[in-house]
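Dear V.,

Thank you for sending over the compound details. I've combined the ligand you provided, S-adenosylmethionine, with the protein sequence from our construct and run the structure prediction for the complex. I'm sharing the raw inputs here so there's no ambiguity about protonation or stereochemistry in the SMILES, which I know was a concern on your side last time.
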Amino acid sequence: MSSLIQALSVALDNRQALLAELHQQGTDCYRLFHGSQEGASGLTIDRYGPQLLVQSFHTRLERDDLLALHAHITAHLGVDLLLVYNDRSQGNSRIDREDTVYQADAEALQDLIGHEWGLNYRVRGRHPGQDPLLFLDLRNTRGWVKQHSQGKSVLNLFAYTCGVGLSAAAGGAKEVCNLDFAEGNLAVGKENGALNPELPTMQFIQSDYFPAIRQLAGLPITQRRGHKLPPYVRLEQRQYDLVLLDPPAWAKSAFGTVDLLRDYQSLLKPALLATADNGVLICCNNLAKVSMEDWREQVLRCATKLGRPVRDWQIMTPAADFPSQDQQPPLKTLILQL
Ligand SMILES: C[S@@+](CC[C@H](N)C(=O)[O-])C[C@H]1O[C@@H](n2cnc3c(N)ncnc32)[C@H](O)[C@@H]1O
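Below is the predicted structure of the protein with S-adenosylmethionine bound, written out as structure tokens.
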């Protein structure tokens, strides 16, 4: 047995209990192998419903190794999964579209449906963006939102494909608003809504974060010296009962810079102000080099200084399909009761 298959066997054994639980709760999207944490740096293997998505970020896999991984997983799960291999080890880590190692079947590259917490999600092995359409390490948070949304107004910031919004709608939210500046991501969010026709419809706002959240929070929209602001969507000041703030690690736009290392506060402050009294703000930081302790202190201090002290907080960790040897997973999530 090759060392890679050996590492995969251990990873699958470690997930035995989790997979049984996930299948029972209506989830067939999960990580089966988590890179260096399980013995192969830069290699991730995810199941997205009928599809097996293998991605290499550091070293391209040999074809025989790839096929052996696929065969091993198929036998272990007893499901014939459609294989897609994205080698992202070259250059800018965009998907290698030349498929020199393995050409996926047309069926594997079609629009497919995966499931999580009993909900349907659009899955696509290849699309113009870099990441799969559902971030699997946020599953526990989506589950929490589904359980705690009954009767609430919910604002999903940096919504991507609107998984958190969909979970809130499934949990009985009275209103769900998804906000993101990328039209393509919101389009998948709309598809996700359509794939769950029994749920109430969600709202979608295509806007840059900064002008949108500052208007909701009742703060002025500032202009950098010498830079005229582009037009932006007009919104009324208002608060939501449950707000999710899950920004990317870094992004720059005409309105401001998302920088989770140096300036989490400028994202957090308006989000706190847009959260109702007795409401909940769930905030995330996916930058590996920021520790939970430092970030949590920063978040709590910022809330106190703003006059919105946190009454209670809880850490939400990714599930066991994202093992972390040092117990410091890159994705950190805090659930703040205001
Ligand atoms: C890390 S993803 C968020 C993941 C998402 N919360 C989820 O549940 O899957 C980052 C998202 O932020 C969006 N984004 C980045 N900068 C933005 C900005 N300045 N304003 C609005 N959206 C932005 C991107 O389009 C992308 O959809």
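A first observation: The chain has nine helices and 15 strands.

Warm regards,
I. M.
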